[in-house]
Design brief:
six-stranded mixed beta sheet, globular, 2 domains, Rossmann fold, alpha/beta, 13 helices, 471 residues
Length: 471
């Protein structure tokens, strides 16, 4: 009998007349199963069936049959299914219970009443499998999004389940972290553990995949992984404007938390109509640097200046921004009472969200929520745009829409700073690249055919400063 057996399974979320899954029939056993398809197509819902979150946590209506490890999903509590299925969510921030890494990884073992003498060894084993032994003892609040992703993986591995399910696991990882995680999934599959991974970027997964499921409109279709072909890369569009005057600058800035520097002696600046990309490994300080530029984190020492105007800031966890009843309400909130509804509709159309305009944002898939957050912060005419891992959970359409939106803002004079592991996004948009690592921020100069503003001085602080000292 296969580990997973679904037969004519159909599922509706609460209040929805359109099924999220339609007549799904499939069988999964060992090996590596890759689940692909557009955002909102049903990938995450399918994965949630495997550990019982659908229907036990989300509610709604379900018909058909679903068995996992011999258990009827409809009648088996999720706490029982968790012994067989380890799950790593798209949002690791929402999966954390304890404040320290070791305690977090031990949490599931304690819930399963594993003898206390066994727990330290299994925690160490799981941290090693996830490549994060060096994070033992660290406070979760000090970790980057990518580091939290690997802590969530270690927490799942510590339970030694028969199946590991990962929903967009590499969306926040640097190339080295992504490679280690994918290698871990391949080892698990080779050792007999069934591994199911939903991803948009398949290049490194497909060669090891035994099964490829493409999910569209709630219906998965099984295809031969060998027939998959990588989509074409995003093209760099020629500029219609040149960078303008100085928009922001940092002069000998140290920044960190509780008096401990994460970044030291940083001197950087950016111009209006210019896109600067911040690259570097997980935990290097990219998010810290963005927060300093935004003004949400005061520097420990040094001077920060920025041109007056609205700042649009997209954090790594976009769900934290969404609290209005509908998608359209989120966008109109930014525009204010006198905002143009037509402008709100325009940006929703650009990002492929018009059909979801009346939906509750938190009910959407992660990639869709990412686009809603982008629409909510980027609508109008911000003067400074700060985006932290903006392509997280995005399919090819959404990535193309994001590129077009950033290009439009840039050409209207916005200064844009991206923190990203996405090399394709950097190639498509960046005028300059700054490498953030080892506590510093090293400008790498003009990127590709980009022409940096003379005022930016290749990333260093210019002699003549503009703007207002806000900190």
């Amino acid at each position: 009998m296969p580990l997973v057996a679904l037969s004519e399974l159909t599922y509706w979320y609460p209040g929805s007349d359109v099924p999220a899954l339609r007549d799904v029939s499939l069988a999964l056993d060992g090996g590596l199963t890759v689940v692909a398809g557009p955002s909102g197509g049903g990938k995450s819902t399918l994965l949630r069936v495997l550990n019982g979150l659908v229907p036990h946590f989300h509610g709604g209506r379900i018909s058909g049959l679903a068995e996992v490890d011999g258990c009827d999903v409809r009648r088996t509590p999720t706490r029982r299914l968790a012994r067989s299925v380890g799950f790593v969510f798209q949002d690791p921030e929402l999966q954390t219970v304890y404040t320290v890494v070791d305690r977090e990884v031990a949490f599931g073992l304690e819930n399963l009443a594993v003898p206390g003498s066994e727990i330290p060894g299994r925690v160490e084993e799981a941290l090693g499998q996830a490549g994060i032994l060096h994070l033992a003892g660290r406070r979760v609040a000090t970790l980057s999004g990518g580091e939290r992703q690997r802590v969530a993986l270690a927490s799942a591995l510590a339970l030694r389940p028969r199946m590991i399910v990962l929903d967009e696991p590499t969306s926040q990882l640097d190339p080295d972290g992504a490679a280690r995680l994918l290698e871990a999934t391949r080892r698990l599959a080779a050792d007999g553990c069934a591994v199911v991974v939903a991803e948009h970027r398949l290049d490194h997964l497909i060669p090891a995949a035994t099964t490829l499921l493409e999910v569209r409109d709630g219906s998965p279709e099984q295809t031969d992984p060998r027939t998959w072909r990588a989509p074409s890369r995003a093209l760099r569009v020629g500029r219609t404007t040149s960078p303008g005057p100085l928009a922001w600058s940092l002069d000998r800035v140290d920044a960190g938390f509780q008096g401990r520097p994460v970044l030291a002696d940083v001197a950087l600046s950016g111009s209006s109509g210019e896109v600067v990309a911040l690259t570097g490994p997980d935990g290097s300080g990219k998010t810290t640097l963005l927060r300093v530029i935004a003004g949400t984190l005061a520097p420990l020492t040094g001077r920060v200046e920025r041109r007056p105007g609205r700042i649009a800031y997209l954090p790594q966890n976009p769900t934290s921004l969404l609290h209005r009843p509908t998608v359209l309400d989120e966008v109109m909130l930014t525009l204010g009472r006198a905002g143009d509804r037509g402008e709100a509709v325009e940006i929703l159309e650009m990002l492929g969200l018009l059909r979801a305009a009346d939906r509750y944002p938190r009910d959407l898939a992660t990639g869709e929520r990412q686009r809603v957050a982008l629409a909510a912060v980027l609508v109008g005419t911000p003067s400074l745009v700060l985006l932290d891992e903006p392509t997280r959970g995005m399919d090819a359409f959404a990535r193309s829409a994001l590129q077009g939106l950033v290009e439009r803002l840039r050409d209207r004079g916005a200064a844009v700073v991206l923190a990203t592991h996405d090399a394709e996004l950097t190639d498509a948009l960046a005028d300059r690249v700054v490498s953030v690592k080892n506590g510093g921020a090293l400008p790498l100069g003009p990127h590709l055919s980009a022409n940096p503003s003379p005022a930016s001085g290749g990333g260093g602080l210019p002699r003549e400063r503009g703007g207002k000292d806000l900190l």
